[in-house]
Amino acid sequence: DSRRMKFGEIFGFRVNFMTAKIKLKIRVELHVPDSPEKFNSTDGVVTIGQDKKTVFVDYDDDASDGTFSHYWGIEKGEPLGKYELKFYVEGVPIETYKFTVSDQDMKETKK
Fold first, then answer.
1. At residue 91, does pLDDT exceed 90?
2. Which terminus of the chain has a lower count of CB atoms within 10 Å, N or C?
3. DSSP, residue by residue, the chain
4. Of the candidates 44, 47, 27, the residue with the CA atom closest to the CA atom of residue 92
5. Residue 55's closest CA among 72, 35, 75?
6. CA angle, 109 as apex, 4 and 103 as ends, to 5°?
7. Is residue 109 pLDDT above 70, yes or no?
């Protein structure tokens, strides 16, 4: 299933878990419809795939409180089309999130 994302909308995940580990290896894999003009991330190591349409963000997260989260926003200039976001913890796929960004969705709402 896929949903539509709008300009300025925030999306992401928050996971609760139980583990004896102090740090967890997190990987976020984002498939975009076209090579983005820019890609911003404040977490981890960002790698752009050879196809220029796959972005990987790898980082270690503090597991001591039993939660972790990661969030993004839809900004002007994002490629239009279908996206797929995959989350991995310790190499295990946790969730896949699909969404679409259309030209209509990128228009700012007038107040």
1. yes
2. C
3. --EE--TT-EEEEEEE---S-SEEEEEEEEE-SS--S----SSSEEEE-TTSSEEEEEEEEE-TTSEEEEEEE--TTPPPEEEEEEEEETTEEEEEEEEEE-TGGGSPPP-
4. 27
5. 35
6. 45
7. no
How many of the other CB atoms lie within 10 Å of CB of 57?
19
From the number of C-beta atoms within 10 Å of its C-beta (0-12, 13-18, 19+), residue 94 rates as middle
pTM of the model: 0.75
The total number of residues written for the chain in this structure: 111
- Write the CB contacts of 29 (distance below 8 Å, at least 6 apart in sequence): 54, 55, 56, 85, 86, 87, 88
Residue-wise pLDDT for 55-75, tens only, equals 898 998 887 888 877 777 777
Q: Read off φ and ψ for residue 106, nearest 5 degrees.
A: -85, -5
Scan for tokens 């200039």, then name that residue. Answer: 77
